[in-house]
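A brief tutorial aside. Many learners find it easier to grasp structure tokens once they have seen a single protein encoded end to end. The record that follows does exactly this for Glutathione S-transferase. Read the sequence first, then the structure, and try to relate runs of similar tokens to stretches of the chain.
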Amino acid sequence: MKFCPYAQRVHLVLDAKNIPYHVAYINLTEKPDWFEKVSALTKVPALEIPGHGENLIESLIIADYLDEKYHQNSLHSKDPLQKARDRILVERFESFISPFYRIIFQRNQGGAPGAITELTSALDLYEKELRERKTKFFGGSKPGMLDYMIWPWCERSDSLKFILGDKYELDKVRFSELIKWKEEMQKDKAVKENYISPEDHFKYASLRLAGTPDYDFLAVIPLKKSRLS
């Protein structure tokens, strides 16, 4: 689904590793009958592997599979301990995701008290991590798995300005490294290929909140020829 951040994770990995693929977008309100054969839980993302009769679900599982199966441009650290540390940071990003969605989808029920503070506090850990690593990206000189796995919500965070105005703006001193990281991520090829503007993220979220989600108001990107094996 074009606006699903978990599906975007997989698109980022596929494009970062230059893996050809075919994409089928799913209307999650009216799911096609055949979708259950591809996704046992009937949710996205789901990866169908041609020639193997196998399907994978869950964004982190799919991302790991792709990185191990296709060795070009490895995204995980070769150091097992660092790889584990990065996965912990991916899991801990839920402390940002949860208040983010409360702001987005509870704004018509009196807002989300404390969510802005939770959101910004969650980012302190990632600012500290970048400062300690002294690298442009969490992955070093180029984006790695951690960068791509948290990016979808960082991209969507710019849409908060349409809800909160100037109440949500990253402090340029407190989050100096994260701000630079975000600017560098926006220059990345895979990120640019999957980028959706803050205006369109806000439009989709507003339609969903109103109970009338429109999955197709953006032009669908051309299908990419599949050569997976």
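Self-check: Confidence is low (pLDDT under 50) at residues 221-229. If you spotted this yourself, you are ready for the next section.
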